[in-house]
Amino acid sequence: MANSQERNPSEVKRMFARVSRRYDLANRAMTFGMDVLWRKKLVDKLLDGNPSGKKVLDAACGSGDVALEIARKFPGAEITATDFCEEMLEMAKLKLSGFPSAKLECADCSSLPFEDETFDAATMAFGFRNFKDRPACLRELFRVMKKNSKIRMLETSRAGFPLEGIQNFFMEKIAPTAASLCGGNRLDYEYLAKTTREYPEPQEVENMFREAGFLNVKTKRLGFGMVAIVSAEKIF
User: Rounded to 5 degrees, what are φ and ψ at 76?
Assistant: First the structure.
């Protein structure tokens, strides 16, 4: 199921429903807590100037960590967090309960229920690798973003030589074991590890953004190149 062209979205949804309650704990265990810092870097400088009234979309929000970080970092911003898995949204709802400016909506990134040019900024973290049609999702994000807006995406990345072998061993052996010790299903996390090996090279990901219409596309590697933040802008 790791190959994006072969995976069944319904199977992916069921998998995330299974892991939803232990998702945060497993993420902390698999990344030794570094995912918290990566999300902070993702959100940093997302909005320019006064954030009051600005609309931010957090697509494929999962359990809501990024949306929560946006709410804390930019008081007054109006946050919409979407995900296609209702069980994940339930976890996000608990985290965002103290932030009335944040709302949740069940939606697939390939078909977003928003008007053209709705959002001033957009984020996504560790969701892109699970999409069956990544270009379609980027086109949708481009459509719903306003002109002169930013998008930032945190995602796995292939470390390349000489660290790729270490990354593969870690993702295929260490990470699933750490997740299973936290009560997760080892097979589910083995799938998530395989999506890392199948994930495109950074240049290919950047090209997907450009083909969707985004400009000023840049990649910043983190975690010894094992994850990356892709930044881009919708200018026109």
Answer: 100, -20
Q: pLDDT tier at 213 (50, 70, 90 boundaries)?
A: very high
As a whole number, the mean pLDDT across the chain is 90
**What confidence score (pLDDT) does residue 1 get?**
42
User: What token pair was written down for 164?
Assistant: 């790729």
* Region class of 86: left (phi > 0), else alpha (psi between -120 and 50), else beta: alpha
Token match 């709410």: residue?
Answer: 71
Whether the Cβ atoms of residue 85 and residue 61 lie closer than 8 Å to each other:
no
Label the pairing between strands 55-59 and 145-156: unpaired
pLDDT in tens, 70-94: 999 999 999 999 999 999 999 999 9
Phi, psi of 87 (to 5 degrees): -65, -40
